Amino acid sequence: QQPVQSPQAVILREGEDAVINCSSSKALYSVHWYRQKHGEAPVFLMILLKGGEQKGHDKISASFNEKKQQSSLYLTASQLSYSGTYFCGTGLHGSSNTGKLIFGQGTTLQVKP
Amino acid sequence: EAEVAQSPRYKITEKSQAVAFWCDPISGHATLYWYRQILGQGPELLVQFQDESVVDDSQLPKDRFSAERLKGVDSTLKIQPAELGDSAMYLCASSGDIYNEQFFGPGTRLTVL
Questions:
Q1: A84 and A35 in contact (C-beta within 8 Å)?
Q2: Band of the pLDDT at B10, cuts 50, 70, 90?
Q3: CB A101 within 8 A of CB A48
């Protein structure tokens, strides 16, 4: 049931774009995206609940496909501060009444000057 | 800005010893989560509380782990006896609404020797 994230790691130069994917074999109730810097707690980025939904702030946005089995996180014009490990947390329909999330294995993003 | 507090930040213990971790969620948050994060992996839910009640503890190794949230505010996670494989980061998170973001504390890094 653990979602699969791809790629596992990516290295960018400042100003470049990146896409991180999160795929599930089952339809999802929700997708949460978090960023975690080394030695720190995960920080919430955004949540998607509706099929076909897209949302974002600043230069980080995300989408949730119509079948609600895949979500993508888009980072545009990357900054050094974007470096870290990105996790998607997925909520299955069976756990919609508890809010339980199952996290992917993470995607490590490194932005170089 | 309100934060989730955890203590201790670091704990080194020998196998077969008992350890305990403490978490104080953001004031007013009814939902509290304990996660275990092994290096290089995503957080894995151990136990979820709604107020003082356990909502999900399906992944909690109940032969050695216990968790309580007696007054529905702060919480304690205990391991007895600790095993080498318990070495990990233990994260506490809280949420005001199970459908919204989870706020993570700084975590307790446990090393079992």
A1: yes
A2: very high
A3: no
> If you write DSSP's letter for every residue of B19-81 in order, what string do you get?
EEEEEEPPTT--EEEEEEE-TTS--EEEEEEETTEEEE-TTS-TTTEEEE-TTSSSEEEEESS
Q: What is the DSSP letter of A2?
A: P
Cβ neighbors of A65 (< 8 A, separation 6 or more) are A51, A52, A71
Nearest of B92, B63, B88 to residue B77 by alpha carbon: B92
- Which residues of B fall within a CB distance of 8 Å from A97? 98
Report strand pairing: B108-112 vs B10-13: parallel
Q: Do B41 and A106 touch (CB under 8 A)?
A: yes
Does residue A112 register a pLDDT over 80?
yes
The pLDDT, as a whole number, for residue A57 is 79
State the Cα–Cα distance between residues A11 and B49, nearest whole angstrom. 38
Q: Give the gap in angstroms from C-alpha A79 to the nearest C-alpha of chain B.
A: 23
Of A37-41, A96-100, B36-40, B50-54, where does mean pLDDT reach its minimum? Answer: A96-100
Q: Is A70 helix (H, G, I), strand (E, B) or coil?
A: strand
CB neighbours (10 Å) of residue A57?
8
Closest Cβ–Cβ partner in B31, B43, B56 for A103: B43
Question: Would you state the pLDDT for residue A95?
Answer: 59
Residues of A in contact with B42 (CB under 8 A): 2, 87, 89, 103-106
Q: Which pLDDT score, from 0 to 100, does residue A97 have?
A: 65
